[in-house]
Amino acid sequence: MTAPVRVERTGDVVVWTIDNPEQRNPISDEATIEALESAVHAADRDHSIRVAILTGAGTAFSAGGNVKHMRDKAGMFAGTPAQLRQGYRHGIQRIPKALYHCEIPTIAAVNGPAIGAGCDLALMCDMRIAATTATFAESFVRLGLIPGDGGAWLLPRAVGMARASQLAFTGAAIDAATALEWGMVNEVVEPDRLLDTAHRLAAEIAVNPPHALRMTKRLLREGQQQSLETLLELSAAMQAVTHHTADHDEAVAAVLERRAPRFTGD
């Protein structure tokens, strides 16, 4: 049986590929949830990994929930209201929690439609590169549902409240060019350049000291919800740690000696 998520390593960059193209890469089944969560946790523990790229196999990024399972009240869509609530909390909601707390920078390489929870999955990453074939739809309302995986928190942070409201209330899809205009994605490229572009961005990030990268990401996350005073205190504590890393000493030496640095993660 094919693993629901392929994990491939290239140097200090890991690529996570949702690998169920026949069903357009849904993420609502337990196997995929477990695989994504495990992949994130494994990357967090491995300090030789500096950046992760998330993409989908085939022509779709992710169709989100399995609509046939919704129809049949099967899988995570089975049970009483109380059971469904627990199913969401202990099922698909593990994905946004894992990606939110993922210590390394993440890039979504959106190769095609990102629909419903698939749209939210792209938003769970720190950066997004979209192929010209990509579309994005916060389409839950069209199925008589609400964003059950954190989309109401993620979407306004990506495009602002007015545009998030438009997307969530209409359920309409936008193309890659509109997503770029609205600030949802960082760059739009032709499909055959998508992974190369994602890898190029990953390489630009990965050349930097890994401890500083991980702590910078944590500060950006905390800055979304903490007061300035609290963030300054956390920044001071983290900065004290970075000053005592070998990579900081190497960076300073490289600047003074006018050469490229060689970071080791120490």
What does this structure look like?
Helices cover 47% and strands 15% of the residues. It is an alpha/beta fold and 266 residues long. The strands form two sheets. A six-stranded mixed sheet has the order 1-2-3-4-6-9, with helices on both faces. It has a three-stranded mixed sheet with strand order 5-7-8. Strand 1 and strand 2 (13-18) form a beta hairpin.
- Described by its quaternary structure, the protein is single chain
Q: In angstroms, what separates the terminal alpha carbons?
A: 39 Å
What is the average of the pLDDT values? 95
What is the element string, with H for helices and E for strands?
EEHEHHHEEHEEHHEHEHHHH
Content of β-strand? 15-25%
Q: How many H/I helices? A: 12
Strands side by side in the biggest sheet: 1-2-3-4-6-9
The major beta sheet can be summarized as: 6 strands, mixed
Short note summarizing the structure:
By secondary structure, the chain is an alpha/beta fold.
Index terms:
3-stranded mixed β-sheet; 266 residues; alpha/beta; 12 helices; 6-stranded mixed β-sheet; 47% helix; single chain
Q: What's the layout of helices and strands?
A:
Elements: E1 5-10, E2 13-18, H1 30-45, E3 51-56, H2 67-72, H3 81-90, H4 94-101, E4 106-110, E5 113-115, H5 117-123, E6 127-131, E7 135-137, H6 151-159, H7 161-170, E8 173-175, H8 176-181, E9 187-189, H9 194-206, H10 210-223, H11 228-242, H12 246-257
Parallel strand pairs: 2-3, 3-4, 4-6, 5-7, 6-9
Antiparallel strand pairs: 1-2, 7-8
